[in-house]
Each structure stands twice: as C-alpha cells, then as structure tokens.
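The instructor's notes for this session suggest beginning with a concrete chain rather than abstract definitions. Hand out the sequence below and ask the class to guess, before any prediction is shown, which regions might be ordered.
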Amino acid sequence: MTTVSSAGHSRRDFLYIATGAVGAVGAAAALVPLIAQMNPDASTIAAGAPVEIDLAPIADGQIVKVFWRSKPIFIFHRTKHDIELAQNVNVASLPDPAPDSERVKAGHEQWLVVIGICTHLGCIPLPHEGNYDGWFCPCHGSQYDSAGRIRQGPAPKNLYLPPYTFISDTKIRIGEESTKSA
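After discussion, reveal the predicted structure:
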C-alpha cells in the first residue's frame, strides 16, 4: 500500500504544480495587453512631442539652437537691419524664390525659426557667417541669408521651416502649427 500512497501524492503534487503554472501563464497573458495599452502609440513616439521655447532671454541679433525630433532648430531674433536686408531682396533672383513674409509669422517678423540642416548634404551651417549675415555651410560653401534662403553655393533649397506657432509674444511651440494667431 505504501507504493500506491506515494504514487497518489506524486500525481497530486504534479496536478498542483501544473495548475499553478497554467494559472500563472494565464495571469501573465492577461496582464501583457493591459500594460501594453498604457504605452504611447508608436506613431505618437515617431512624430515627436512638441517643444515650447521661451523667446524672452534671446537678445536682438542672437541665434539659439534647440532640438526637436533630433533635428537642430535655429531661432534667430532678427534686428531691424536683418529684417530690412531680408525684405529688400529681388526674390526672382534667388535660387529658391521665397519672400521674407512667407518665411516668418505675420506680426512676428523679428523671429525666424528654421531647421538648421543644410539642404545640400545635411551638414549643420554656422550662424552669422558668410556674405549675407545668415548661415554658412563650411562643407561645400552654401550661404543662406537672414531669412534662411539659399543665396550662394550648391544647396538647392532654402533652410526648411518647422511647424510652429506663437503661444504668446514671447513663447513658441515647435511641433504643431495652429491656425490661430497670438
């Protein structure tokens, strides 16, 4: 009889362990989707969250660099002289014609916000360099003016504009553009 008794305990122990393992696997299978749904959507992560920039500390004539979606963004607080230079250009003579008014937000002409990547081969241009007091790309000699427009060199396009909006007179949000004006 001892043999039967020890075999019964062995089967019972196996059933307890098997039942516990199935229960644990079932609980884990139920928790995985519950936890996964709390993570942000992949498209949200890929799009990059908007960033807010306080413009108040940026002095006249200063260019600051911030990052959005792993790209350098140049924010240029243009002086009256910079604005006049950008507005008094024969747009038809430019390689990528665009008036200054299309490169800035109405009512905020002193602020130029551009993606700081040369449109030729993706280098980072240097601010306040070159013949046009804008940007100079040392890699192949592209020069941009104070409106971020290509003026000289191999770059085919102007510096690109990121989507942004003014939240107030001294704050912008890069990453989403609003139809409302501040």
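Then share the key points. The longest strand covers residues 71-77. The radius of gyration is 30 Å.
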